[in-house]
Specification:
- By secondary structure, the protein is an alpha+beta fold.
- The protein has a domain of about 240 residues: Alpha-Beta Complex (phage-related protein like fold).
- The chain is built from 11 helices and 13 strands.
- Strands 5-13-10-6-9-8-7 form a 7-stranded mixed sheet. It has a 4-stranded mixed sheet with strand order 1-11-12-4.
- Helix 1 runs antiparallel to helix 2 and helix 4 crosses helix 7.
């Protein structure tokens, strides 16, 4: 059902986008009338609302699949613990996941990562929660969605990454003349592991009375909190006691004559990135939504829109033939601001150390009858290849 509703919402979104395009086509270069501007604003609001609705429905569909997967993977508990009958405990857990009963109590020694009395299928928490958490981190961070090189390590020691910064060059040399020396140049980049964390407290009443998707709710909150904190650093981090953001390390590929780019500015920015990076499957655009609202109205010399909305659910829109990723942490259009990024985002490395740690305590807020969940992620990021893989449009006040 969620997929069907998402399909309908996506079709409505395409209809609204088509109406916007028709209004601009009918204007044929003239200024829009007040009625046309009002229609464009209304339709643009519909596009954004429908886009959010599609994302929400797809999230609901994924949650349903996760619950089904958790039920399918639920294995019998270890009989060596003693106490309650194993088959009876397994039946209670399955009944809880199907929503046929509101709580289940398991002997404390049977659980992973929790203290006190276990409820809500505690043994399934490590795998189910981890999968949801990573998904939400991708949704809130445009950098993680843009296809960086993701490096996962078991521990958090510093990783030294050797890179080249210059290659040897050859020159035409006369007979018997000395051949000039030309050595390649090397550099070293270091990836650390900075800690990002959040805690969430849930009332015992909610745990006792909720349906199957309690873990999905908790994961969404914790995932967005950690993802937002890490995502901001992956864009604008200074590199000093925090990740070095992709925008921070991007060099200027085009300096405009105004704070917002023109069609020619975008073309110049695209070709300021050399072809090996431009041809990469991870090459894309990145900017915030407010900038996207400006860019999607730009046309080429033939009156054709540069922005091409996706016709396939789940596929990104295209700008000048390259995918678009949005991130709210990219700078707004302003004087000296890097408001548009373009390049090969696989040159940006994101390091996750030790996975994502999720812990639960029934004792921390015992007097308030609250269950406390804590999520911690250790991560770092930087552009490992800094020879021009990712460049930026820099605005200038007119």
């Amino acid at each position: 059902m969620s997929l069907l509703l998402a399909r309908r919402a996506f079709d409505e979104k395409l209809r609204a986008e088509t109406e916007i395009r028709s209004i601009f086509d009918a204007a044929d270069g003239r200024d829009l009338t007040s009625e046309e501007l009002a229609s464009v604003d209304r339709l643009d609001g519909e596009v954004r609302s429908l886009g959010d609705r599609v994302a929400e429905l797809m999230e609901q569909e994924q949650r349903s699949r996760d619950a089904a997967d958790a039920l399918a993977r639920l294995a019998p508990l270890d009989e060596s613990d003693g106490g309650a009958d194993v088959d009876d405990v397994g039946a209670q857990l399955r009944s809880f996941l199907r929503g046929e009963q509101r709580s289940v109590v398991v002997a404390p020694e049977r659980r992973d990562l929790v203290k006190g009395t276990a409820t809500a299928g505690g043994n399934t928490v490590p795998t189910t929660f981890y999968g949801r958490l990573v998904e939400h981190m991708v949704e809130v961070s445009g950098v993680l969605a843009a296809g960086p090189t993701l490096l996962e390590t078991a521990s958090g020691e510093s990783i030294e990454v050797p890179t080249t910064t210059a290659f040897s060059t050859a020159a035409l040399t006369a007979e018997a003349a000395a051949i000039a020396e030309s050595d390649p140049a090397f550099a070293k980049r270091t990836l650390g592991a900075y800690k990002y964390g959040a805690t969430i407290q849930v009332s015992r009443e909610l745990i006792d009375d909720t349906a199957v998707d309690l873990l999905g709710f908790i994961a969404a909150q914790a995932g967005r909190a950690v993802g937002n904190a890490l995502g901001a650093a992956l864009v604008t981090g200074s590199g000093s006691s925090q990740p070095a953001g992709v925008a921070t390390q991007a060099t200027a590929g085009k300096t405009g004559a105004a704070t917002t780019p023109t069609t020619d500015d975008l073309i110049d920015l695209m070709y300021s990135v050399i072809s090996p990076y431009r041809a990469s499957s991870s090459c894309c655009w990145m900017f915030r939504d407010a900038t996207a609202a400006h860019l999607r109205k730009l046309k080429d010399d033939n009156g054709q829109y540069l922005w091409q909305p996706s016709l396939v659910l789940g596929q990104p829109d295209m700008l000048l033939g390259k995918p678009v990723a949005t991130d709210p942490n990219v700078a707004a259009a302003d004087n000296s601001a890097k408001s548009v990024l373009f390049g090969d985002f696989s040159a940006f490395w994101v390091r996750l150390a030790g996975g994502v740690r999720f812990e639960r305590s029934d004792d921390f807020a015992f007097s308030s009858d609250l269950v406390t969940f804590k999520v911690v992620a250790r991560a770092d990021g930087m552009t490992v290849d800094q020879t021009g893989a990712i460049k930026a449009f820099v605005g200038v006040s007119a």
